[in-house]
């Protein structure tokens, strides 16, 4: 499969598995899982999207640059590993973060972030990364990236919970201003 097709399938899967499964009449369970057979049928019923097959799904799950999607152990279900706007219970284990984590944003959000800290906005969590480089990529989606350093070790000591998604994105509920280095 070529890169362009894989990317467009990934974008479409992000839409239906993170934000609006109803676009194709799909139902996710409370843990965010969709039935693979149902997903394939409903993608194909939609018409405009390229043909979906089990092989295409396998390829995208396996080769996706950020490993955004995962199959259940028996491969009958699929879900997004993070990034949801709809409410799902991923049952992620709490993990102790390193001293610092990073968040990529853009300058137009700075005033607000300085007032209210990092908020989850439309998603289920605030997304942080282990590497500055990843945060730079995240910020670049919106313009010139601005990297905030988060004192995650101190937050954790103060009782804030951190989770690591299956694809290694750090998640937390909020980051108050006092833990952010601008
Ligand atoms: C900003 C991608 C104003 C925040 C990435 C960000 C990530 C505030 C935007 C994942 C704010 C939310 C998530 C506040 C935060 N006031 N703006 N108080 N607090 N913001 O897309 O972290 O490629 O929901 O800085 O790689 O950008 O889709 O979050 O700019 O892991 O798999 O509000 O999405 O993953 O934007 O990105 P998002 P994000 P995928």
Which ligands does the model contain, each kind named once?
Answer: ligand HQG
Radius of gyration: 18 Å
Shape: elongated
Main structural class: alpha+beta
The main sheet orders its strands as 1-3-2
* Percent helix range: 25-40%
List low-pLDDT spans.
none
Largest sheet report: 3 strands, antiparallel
Share of residues in strands: 15-25%
Order of helices and strands: HEHHEEEHEHEHEEE
Tell me the total number of β-strands.
9
Count helical runs: 6
**Termini separation:** 42 Å
Structure, described:
- With 182 residues, the protein is α+β, with helices and mostly antiparallel strands.
- It is built from 6 helices and 9 strands; from the N terminus they run αβααβββαβαβαβββ.
- β2 and β3 (77-80) form a beta hairpin.
- The radius of gyration is 18 Å and the shape is elongated.
- Bound molecules: ligand HQG.
């Amino acid at each position: 499969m070529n890169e362009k097709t894989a990317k467009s399938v990934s974008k479409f899967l992000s839409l239906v598995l993170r934000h609006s499964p109803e676009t194709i009449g799909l139902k996710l369970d409370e843990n965010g899982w969709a039935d693979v057979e149902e997903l394939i049928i409903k993608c194909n019923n939609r018409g405009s999207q390229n043909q979906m097959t089990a092989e295409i799904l396998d390829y995208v799950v396996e080769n996706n640059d950020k490993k955004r999607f995962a199959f259940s152990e028996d491969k009958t279900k699929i879900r997004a590993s993070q990034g949801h706007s709809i409410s799902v219970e991923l049952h992620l284990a709490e993990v102790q973060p390193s001293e610092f984590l990073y968040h990529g944003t853009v300058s137009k959000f700075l005033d607000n972030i300085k007032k209210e800290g990092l908020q989850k906005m439309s998603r289920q969590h605030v997304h942080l990364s282990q590497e500055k480089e990843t945060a730079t990529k995240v910020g670049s989606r919106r313009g010139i990236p601005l990297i905030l350093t988060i004192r995650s070790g101190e937050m954790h000591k103060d009782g804030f919970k951190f989770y690591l998604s299956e694809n290694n994105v750090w998640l937390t509920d909020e980051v108050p201003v006092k833990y952010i280095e601008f």
